[in-house]
Amino acid sequence: MADSVSFKNINKIAIPAIIAGIAEPLISLTDIAVIGNVGKNSVEALAAAGIVGSFLSAIIWIVAQTKTAISAIVSQHLGANRLHAVKTLIPQAIAFNFLFSLAIYGVTAFFARAIFSAYNAEGLILQYSEDYYQIRALGYPLTLVTFAIFGIFRGLQNTLWAMKCSLTGAAVNVALDYLLVYGIDGLIPPMHLKGAAYASLAAQATMLVMAFWFFFKKTPFHLKLSFNINPRMKGLLLMAANLFVRTAALNFAIYLANAYATDYGKNYIAAQSILMNIWLFFSFFIDGYANAGNAIGGKLLGAMDYRNLWELSKKISKYAVLIAIILMALCALFYNQIGLLFNKEATVLALFSSVFWMVLIMQPVNAIAFMFDGIFKGLGEAKYLRNVLLVATFLGFTPALLISDYFGLKLYGIWIAFFVWMLIRSSTLVVYFRRKYLHKEV
C-alpha cells in the first residue's frame, strides 16, 4: 500500500480530477463571461445567471452526494478485495439518482418564480432567472446520473475517464455558448441567455453519453437491476443523507450571501456572481487533491493501513496548499484584467476589484479544509462532516454576515463571513483527524 501514497500515484488521481473538476465551473464561468458581454441588459442577465448558477449548484451538490458515498464504498471494497459485494449496489444507486433527479426537477421547475423571488430577484432579473432555469433544470437527470458514474470511477482509483468526459462537455459548452448566445447572421438567431442554457444542456448530455461508454467498456459493473436490495444500500443512503444535510448547510451559506448581495443592488449581485464563480472555480481546482484523498483514503481504510493514511493526509495537504499559492500568485499578477473577462461595467468592476483580494488570501485555508473533506468522505465520516458544516454555517458564517451587514460592510462582510466559515471547517477537521488517526499510524 506504500505505493498508494507516492507522489506519482496521488497525482495520477489528482491531476485528472483537477481537470475534470474545473470543467464543471468552467461551464458556468463561460456562461457568465459570454452573457456579461452580450450588450443590452447585460448586468441583469449576468445577475440572473449568477443567481440561477448558485441555486443549480446548491441542488446538484446536495443530491449528488451519492457520488461521494458510492466512491467511498467502492474504494473501501477495492482495498479489501471485495468488489463483488457491491455489483448489485451500483445499478441501484444509479437508478436512485435518476428517480430523485426527476422529483427535484418536477418540484423546482414548478416553483421557479417563487424560488428566485426568495433570492430578492425582481423585475427583469427575476424574469431572466425563471427563463434560464426552466431550461437548465432539464439537465438534472443528465448531471446526477453522470456524477454517480464518476463516483464509481473514482472508487476504482481512476479519474482519467471522468476528466475526458468533462473536458469534452466543456468544449461543447464553450462552442455552443458563442453560437447560440450571439447567433450567426442568416443561420442561427441570437438566443442570448436562453442560448447559454441550451449550450449547458448539450454539454451535460455529451458527458453522460461518454460516461456510459467508459462504464460499460472499462468497469466490472453493469446496469441490470436486482429487486433484492443490496445490504450496503442502507449504509450508502445513510452516508448520502448526512452529506445531503451537510451540503444543504453549505449551500444555505451561499444562498444567504447571494440574497444579501441582491438586496444591495444589481451591481452588487453582478460583482458577487463573478466573485462566487471564481471562488468555486478555485475550489474545484484544489478539490482534485481532495478527490485523491477520497479515493486513496477509502482504499487504505479498507486495508486498515493507518500508517499510510497519515502519510496521505500530510502529502496531499502540502500539494494542495502549493496549488492554492500558485493560483493566488497568478491572480495577483492579472488582478485588474480578470474582472474584464466577465463584464465591462465600471461600477461592477470597481466592486469586484475592491473585494477580490479577500477571495485570494483565503485559498490556503480553503485548501486544508477541502483536503480533509475529501479524506473524511473516503473514510465514511459523513456524520462528523455534517456536524462541522452545521456549526460553521450557523455559529460562524451566519452571525458574521449579520454583524457585517449591520455595520454596512456589504460585499466585504459577505467575504469576511466566508473566511470565518472556512477557518472553522479547516481547523476542526485537522484537530479531529489528528486525535482519531495519529495514534493508529504506529
Description:
- Helix 7 runs parallel beside helix 9 and helix 11 runs antiparallel to helix 12.
- By secondary structure, the chain is mainly α.
- It has 17 helices and no strands.
Give the C-alpha Rg: 21 Å
User: Could you describe the largest sheet, including whether it forms a barrel?
Assistant: none
Give the overall pLDDT as a whole number: 86
Gross morphology is globular
**Unreliable segments (pLDDT under 50, ≥5 consecutive)?**
none
Number of contiguous helices: 17
- Approximate strand percentage: under 5%
Number-wise, the strands total: 0
* Terminal-residue CA separation: 15 Å
Estimated structural class? mainly alpha
In which range does the helix fraction lie? Answer: over 70%
The string of secondary-structure elements, in order, is HHHHHHHHHHHHHHHHH
InterPro entries: MATE_fam, MATE_MdtK, MdtK-like
Membrane topology: Multi-pass membrane protein
Transmembrane segments: 45-64, 94-115, 135-153, 165-184, 196-216, 236-257, 269-290, 316-335, 355-376, 388-407, 413-433
Pfam families: MatE
Summarize this structure briefly.
By secondary structure, the chain is mainly α.
